[in-house]
TrEMBL record:
Residues 236-324 form the Beta-ketoacyl-[acyl-carrier-protein] synthase III C-terminal domain. It comes from Campylobacter hyointestinalis subsp. hyointestinalis. Residues 253-257 are annotated as: ACP-binding. One of its GO terms (cellular component) is cytoplasm. This is Beta-ketoacyl-[acyl-carrier-protein] synthase III. Gene3D superfamilies: 3.40.47.10.
Amino acid sequence: MKKASMISVGAYVPPHILTNADLEKIVETSDDWIVKRTGIKTRHIAKDELTSDLAYKAALVAIDRADINKSDIDAIICATITPDHFCMPSTACKVANKLGLYDITAFDISAACTGFIYLLELANSLVKSGTKKNVLIIGAEKLSAIIDWQDRSTCVLFGDGAGAAIISEAKDDYIIDVHTSSDGSKGDLLITPGCAIAHPASKETIENRLNYLHMAGNEVFKIAVQTLTKDVEGILEKNSITSDKIDLFIPHQANLRIIEAVKQRLNFTDEQCVVTVANYGNTSSASIPMAMNDAYEQGRLKNGSLILLDAFGGGFTWGSALIKFGGR
């Protein structure tokens, strides 16, 4: 069996910043209310860019840092719940076109906030099986397009952005373990009801605002904390690694209260944790690679760093990954 490594990470956020003060002018809310309940202070909003544009710009950074030619990439997989088009073409195909790559595997997956960990599992399998040598994985979201800006409970939470990484065949097996799972019985707690087959686009669908994201916040919060804690404990125990051996704990950036609750239960220190939710809000599948990119640019994420990723999202989906960073 081949060996695999994450050899680079990159990210892109659109330039427009929406502050809590800006939101006070849109809905009945306040900076104090948002910060206390979520830890979010700002988020980036894509005005004249599509999800594929965000993905492409993040991909360019990852490719440059990987020190490979883009022609060396033989697969592109994108995780998104906000694709440019309803069914086709996929966001990955559009990114391949923007990169000038016309004869490679390209497809999307939908796993909400856990999307990047699902991508990591797929890319790891493709490389270790020998099927592919260099897989570009991208988490990209334009969540501002599916947020109800009249719903103060959800519109304060989300932002736009993209994060990318390249998984390549390597001499050392730096992707130690990846775990993904799901529970479809709780899907209604975090859902975009329309405008697909269950509730096709219609005047009634739009009037009932079914084309926007709906979330039962309190229920999702409780399940997320319990599930993430159990999942991280499981992957550490399986690999005989204690939390003090982790260089960086990089969780999905959904809510500071969730991150703090999981951190405390697992005894991670502030120095071990990467927290970016204050600056970007919840960017779903882009969240983890964007946080990784921040840590990389700050000099915290280095070659050989042992990192633990975890995420929980709509579906419900969740997952964790234990890897050593193989980038320069």
